[in-house]
Amino acid sequence: MSAVGISNVAKYYGKVAALDDVSMTVQDGEFFGLLGPSGGGKTTLLRAIAGFVEPDRGEITIAGKAVSNIPINKRDIGMMFQNYALFPHLTVAENIGFGLSVRHRPKAEIAERVRQLLELVRLSGFEGRKPKQMSGGQQQRIALARALSTNPKVLLLDEPLGALDKKLREEMQFELKQIQRDVGITTVFVTHDQEEALTLSDRIAIMNGGRVEQIGAPRDIYERPRTAFAASFLGTANFFEGVVSGRGDGVTRIELPDGQAIFTTDEAPAGARVTAAVRPEKLLAGPVGAQGQEGRTNTIQGRVMAEVFAGNSVTYKVDAGNKPVTVFVQNRTDERFGPDQTIALTWAPYHTILVAA
C-alpha cells in the first residue's frame, strides 16, 4: 500500500491552474522529492497533502484513507516549515514536546519521547536552551524533532534546508537523510535546489506549471530525461535541434542546421524534427584532429568563447555552428583551450537523448 496517494488532483486560483490533474504515489518509507521552479505547483501539492489547501477535484489518500474531509490535526502527519516556526519563548524540550502537550499526553511519556528525539538529532544536553541560543543547523534539527514527536505516518518538509548557508546545507543533507533512514518514516519534501533533490530523494517528481513533467529515481531522470524542461531543470543540458536523416547500425542520424550531424541510439522516424539533449560532462574536448578522436561517432567542431575555472573542473562555452555549447572538463591535465581556439567535441551516441520540446 502506498503511504500517500494522489489521484487526478487539481487546484485553480481563478483561471490559473496551480495543480493540473496531478497523479502520483509515494511508497512506505520513501524519501520523495517535489522539485520545480516557483509557481510549478510543488508547494501547493505539499499543502494539499497537509490539509492547508483543499483541491477542487481529485483525491488524496494517506495510508489508503481518503483525507479530503479530515482536518489537519487528524491527518497523522508531521510538518516542518522552511523558517522552522519554533516558539521563541519555549525551551528546546518544550518545543519538541509541544505536539504531545496539546494532545494532553502524560508528562512522563512526553519527557521520554523528547529524550529519544534529542538523542536522535544529537542535541542531548540542550533541552533547557531557547531557540535563539541555538545555531541555524541546531534549530533545523529541533524543528525536525518536533515534527517527529507524535510518530506521524508521513513527514512533510517545505524547503527544509533553505534557511541554511551553503556549507551547512550540504552537511545537513546527509544528516537529514540518515535521520529519515533511522526512523523509516515516509517523507515528502519540497525543494527548488537540484543538488538537494539528487542527494536526498529516492524518487523525484519534477513539476512545472502545475503538472508533472517526470517521476523517477534521480539517476534515471538525470541520465534519461523525457522532456527538455526535465533535462534543463535537473542539471544542465545542451540542446540540438535537427532533422532525422536515417538510421543504421543501431544509431539514428540527425542533421543539424549548420550541416554537421550527430547520432543517438534513440529511435525516431526519418524526416522527423527532433530535439536532442546532451549533458556537458558527457562531452570530451580536444584539439581538432587529435589522435584518439577517430572512432567516436559524435564529433562536432566549435570555437571557444569563454573559460570558467572552478578548481576541480573547467567550464568552456563553445560556439558550435552559431549555437552555444557548454562543456565540463575535469581538472586532470594541464591542457587548456584559449579564446577563439577551434576544438573538437566528441561523445557517445548513447548520451544523445531525444526529448520532448
TrEMBL record:
Cited SMART domains: AAA (SM00382)
GO cellular component: ATP-binding cassette (ABC) transporter complex
EC number: 7.6.2.11
Coiled-coil annotated spans: none
Record field: catalytic activity: ATP + H2O + polyamine-[polyamine-binding protein]Side 1 = ADP + phosphate + polyamineSide 2 + [polyamine-binding protein]Side 1
Single GO MF descriptor: ABC-type polyamine transporter activity
Pfam families per UniProt: ABC_tran, TOBE_2
GO biological process entries: putrescine transport
Assigned keywords, A-Z: ATP-binding, Cell membrane, Membrane, Nucleotide-binding, Translocase, Transport
SUPFAM superfamilies for the chain: MOP-like, P-loop containing nucleoside triphosphate hydrolases
Residues of the ABC transporter domain: 4-234
Similarity comment: family membership: Belongs to the ABC transporter superfamily. Spermidine/putrescine importer (TC 3.A.1.11.1) family.
Role summary: Part of the ABC transporter complex PotABCD involved in spermidine/putrescine import. Responsible for energy coupling to the transport system.
Subunit structure: The complex is composed of two ATP-binding proteins (PotA), two transmembrane proteins (PotB and PotC) and a solute-binding protein (PotD).
Name used for this protein in its record: Spermidine/putrescine import ATP-binding protein PotA
Taxonomic source organism: Kumtagia ephedrae
